Amino acid sequence: MEKQIKKVDLIFGKVDYLDILEKSLKRTRDELILDVIDSGLRGRGGAGFPTGLKWKFAKNEEADQKYVICNADEGEPGTFKDREILTEVPEKVLAGMALCGYCIGATEGYIYLRGEYNFLIPSLNKAIEDFHKKLKELKLDFTIRICSGSGAYVCGEETALMESMEGKRGEPRNKPPFPTSQGYLGKPTSVNNVETLVFALMIGREGPTKFKEMGTFDSRGSKVFSVSGDTPNPGIYELELGMTLEQFVEEFGDGDTKAVQVGGASGFCVSRKEFKNTVIGFEGIPTGGSMMLFNSSRSMFNILNDYLEFFEEESCGQCSPCRVGCQQLLKGIEAVKKGIKPPKYLEELQKLSDTMRIASKCGLGQSVPNPFNSIVNNFREEIIY
Amino acid sequence: MTRIEELVKEQAEKHGRQRTSLMPILQAVVSSERYLSEDAMVAIANELDLSTADVYGTASFYTFLDTVPRGKYIIRVCKTITCHMKGKDEIIKTISDMLKIKLGETTNDRKFSLLQANCLGWCHKGPVMLINDEVYPEVTPEKVTEIIGKYLKKS
Ligand SMILES: Cc1cc2nc3c(=O)[nH]c(=O)nc-3n(C[C@H](O)[C@H](O)[C@H](O)COP(=O)(O)O)c2cc1C
Ligand code: SF4
Description:
The complex is a heterodimer of chains A (385) and B (155).
Chain A (H helix, E strand, L loop, with lengths): L16 H9 L3 H11 L11 H10 L6 E6 L8 H8 L1 H15 L3 E6 L7 H18 L4 E6 L9 H8 L23 E5 H13 L1 H6 L8 E8 L5 E6 L4 H8 L4 E6 L5 E4 L18 E6 L4 H15 L5 H19 L6 H15 L3 H5 L1 H10 L1 H5 L1
Chain B lengths: L2 H13 L6 H12 L4 H11 L3 H8 L13 E6 L2 H5 L2 H12 L12 E6 L11 E3 L2 E3 L4 H13 L2
The complex binds flavin mononucleotide and iron/sulfur cluster.
């Protein structure tokens, strides 16, 4: 192996977050935003939009009120890092939100916390209360509140999230307008993943250059990975970006890894023969952090079936390519498995999944083809027999 | 005023009567009553000046906002992929045998409901289940027998 995977400790390490915040607040908003742009930080919630640019867009909007939202919906199967961040270093997340608020000109922030993490509310509220006192000392006008979700994966999608916060069904909106111009209650809003906010804070301390030195051209810095499945060491790890799957499997596999699902249920399934050539990152296969390992005892049919059941249940049902598509893909692979449909029916299903990618309204329907096509292409026999 | 109307009013005083207050109020009613009855939804609609259909439409979108009666303790066993691989079926069977109910059912005394949930965010510690807001990671049939046993003794 040419390079060892490098473990990093930017996210979970204890730091003097108030000192970082205080020093940052002495600089201008433009300087700070430029640093975040320069660092190359891209959103850690999955879509990977450059964080500094998002902040710049929100900052440039004229409005009487703007909002910062911390997306803690974390519903992607195989992802559990945001819960750990909010448990271990909540103050760093809050400081990241305040920093974002200062940069874009927002005085209100919300944490959208999935209902499954309700048990975190008491400790988070305590952290928020303490943090508000510190903000008073720093003379920054910024308040944070928690909004609770109620068990809907699609509410992690930023526009569905805002609909839910507004007291409606969590159905994604059309984009544009983007949240940075018309977000929560129609006001400019920056929605950021939990991890992204902590990195933005840490760039305030490390400087953009140090962050940029890690990782690769397209994927700067490090990332928190949620590792699960057939591995002797399941858990949460912050690793430098840019490693190959081969390196990853060397570190985390159980010696018999046949496939890795990168990026959760909505991500891609990579088979053993591709490990060597697959880079984990935006130039290869991006991930919100979910890495699920499967060894040769697992049936890939069952795995695909689980994913499709998940999407079929979580589709908001608003647009038919996704609503009907998810149902048909699920029924379709069952029919092929039982021999009711011939194996070549899989090609028709793949055409359907391609249509879903083009015609679905939001990222949920658009990404169902990722697991579907990658599993069917790599493990066709297991789906049929 | 009925008990439910009073509860709704109290929550509206606390969370406000804007549209943005709807989710917190729905959540509070579910947390106290375990589900949203027709009466509760009508009361909420009246209190917030919304149509009942709108309240039901919103509530029915969310898995955790039940509109059918549930038990005092709602058990949700994670069914997604890693928990499936790590034996959630055995967990469900154990609970099912203990409480004599099938998935989706509620015990006659309205004490327990047994449900499945999509990924609960503990894939490295599966199988996992929630009982109301309490989380129980890395459960085994033995552990689950013990946990449910404790709840059985509770009122
Ligand atoms: C179906 C769906 C679910 C999503 N769930 C989450 C989530 O749980 N957490 C998250 O941060 N982003 C999630 N996203 C991405 C958000 O829409 C958004 O891009 C992200 O929160 C932006 O933050 P970032 O730029 O820091 O990544 C989801 C997207 C889709 C389409
Ligand atoms: S793609 Fe699916 S989840 Fe997204 S808006 Fe359409 S139906 Fe809803």
